[in-house]
Design a protein that fits this description.
about 70% helix
Length: about 70
């Protein structure tokens, strides 16, 4: 990029030369994605009781049947 400019660093010619570096990023990217999924699962598990309480409050109470 410093020798050929910013446009070269975004071209296919540049990325075909850096294929090894792109593959070396894979383990770190996978760990990052697994961490994000774990964090999302943890949020859902910990917030689930709040959703159940909100659902119970919004459900209508059943009306008694009229006597015959």
């Amino acid at each position: 990029m410093f020798e050929h400019g910013f446009a070269y660093a975004r071209s296919n010619a540049f990325y075909s030369k850096t294929l090894l570096w792109q593959w070396l990023r894979l383990p770190g990217d996978v760990l990052f994605a697994l961490g994000a999924l774990l964090m999302a699962w943890d949020f859902i598990v910990k917030l689930r009781p709040l959703f159940w309480q909100a659902a119970e409050r919004t459900e209508p109470t059943p009306r008694p049947e009229p006597a015959e």
